[in-house]
Write a structure and sequence with these properties.
Length: about 110
């Protein structure tokens, strides 16, 4: 901790302690188009796991379909990993319910 002295007058002084807090690294979470996962499941997952609105979810799903990927959020590493795991579980459960194999995938990339 570094100390910073502020002089109020010639006889009084106040010492403030400054905490140096390092900003955590942030990571982009992307959904990747796999040409197999049902778009409706992806929209539902984005609403349930990433707290996107229906409109945002539909837009991101279309973007991933057209461009191959879409950024769904920027998080710290632990939160990004948790969201990815929840999203994969959501999609796998949907696929299993309908007798399909899950090919859906995420990518977690450090921000610049």
């Amino acid at each position: 901790m570094a100390e910073d002295t502020v002089v109020l007058n010639e006889t009084e002084s106040v010492i403030r302690e400054k905490e140096l807090v390092e900003t955590p690294k942030m990571y982009r979470v992307l959904i990747l188009n796999d040409e197999a996962t049902v778009a409706y499941w992806v929209v539902e997952m984005l609403v349930a796991v990433f707290n996107k609105t229906l409109e945002e979810s539909m837009y991101l799903t279309r973007m991933a379909d057209r461009q191959g990927s879409a950024i769904v959020g920027i998080y710290t590493k632990d939160i990004a990993a948790s969201k990815v795991e929840l999203g994969m579980t959501f999609i796998r459960n949907q696929a299993a319910t309908h007798g399909m194999v899950c090919q859906f995938n995420f990518e977690v990339v450090p921000t610049i």
